[in-house]
Design brief:
alpha+beta; 3 domains; CENP-P; Centromere protein P
Length: 297
């Protein structure tokens, strides 16, 4: 291959990279929304993706057309962004060191996952050990090991305390897979909480109060016929040391001594609320609680 051919391919690759960047930016807004899938839909999507990936891989290995190869990669990338909600808006790589089979690059990534923006910076050291299997057809079986070091993660929000704790653990371990897996689940729960709070505020505007807006982690329930009585639903999203994301809801109450008729209801409410959560689920449980409060009983 002469220099002219190489230059043509380089120009074509640069043009395709610019086109991919432009298309990514166009779809960025739509990728902020929540993607809720049932178990059946997830399995169907994964089977479809697996089948397409295997077919695309065969084309990728044998197609001489660089544009075709990039189209396949772009299609797979877009599917994963849509499936996880993670969208990368910027990526840069800078060589740091190269010696023998060892190569080190410095990466800078930025993007968003649903409503949360993030920035990452880390070094990736790769060591390639290639073993020639067949000198006649010149095919190599590569064994690549990679180590992440100097990882720094910035979450552009101060309201996600549990996510900040996870970030500290990931920065120490360098486990990027754990970070992105938890980030996807965590932000999806945050968006679901926001939609739920907004739904009940719109449906029961005289009963539901959102002191911190729909992005807060609690709602207050009031009944004009029971002055002084307040029920507070607190909705936290916890991340444990292993990266498991769990929504935790609890019910608190404030009862003035003058509201005698509400005493029994409010004292039983926290226990009943937790029991209903396991039976009805979050949204139906909150609905039931609001209706009970509105009945003045």
């Amino acid at each position: 291959m002469n220099n002219n051919d190489i230059k043509i391919y380089e120009n074509e690759i640069q043009s395709l990279e610019e086109e991919i960047k432009m298309l990514t930016e166009e779809y960025e807004c739509s990728l902020h929304g929540s993607f809720a899938y049932s178990d059946g839909e997830i399995m169907k999507a994964m089977k479809s993706f697996k089948g397409k990936s295997q077919e695309n891989l065969r084309h990728y290995e044998f197609s001489p057309d660089l544009k075709t190869q990039l189209d396949f990669l772009e299609s797979d990338l877009f599917f994963m962004m849509k499936f996880t909600g993670i969208c990368f808006t910027h990526c840069s790589r800078k060589p740091v060191e190269k010696s023998g089979t060892r190569t080190t690059h410095k990466y800078r990534l930025s993007g968003n996952c649903h409503s949360v923006s993030f920035q990452l910076e880390f070094q990736l050291m790769e060591e390639n050990q290639a073993k020639e299997e067949d000198v006649h057809i010149k095919q190599c079986n590569k064994n690549v090991s990679a180590i992440v070091t100097d990882l720094s993660i910035v979450i552009e929000s101060d309201e996600y305390l549990d996510l900040s704790k996870l970030v500290s653990r990931v920065e120490e371990s360098g486990n990027l897979l754990l970070f992105f897996k938890c980030l996807s689940y965590f932000t999806e729960w945050c968006d679901h909480r926001k939609r739920t709070l907004t739904h009940f505020k719109n449906k029961y505007p005289d009963v539901v109060v959102l002191p911190e807006g729909s992005s807060g982690d609690y709602m207050i329930l009031r009944n004009a016929n029971l002055p002084g009585l307040e029920l507070m639903i607190v909705w936290k999203i916890y991340v444990d040391e292993e990266g498991k994301v769990t929504p935790v809801l609890d019910l608190l109450h404030k009862i003035p001594m003058s509201v005698v008729e509400a005493n029994k209801f409010a004292s039983d409410a926290p226990y009943c609320f937790r029991s209903l959560l396991h039976v009805l689920g979050i949204q139906a449980c909150i609905e039931t609680l609001i209706k009970s409060l509105c009945n003045d009983k």
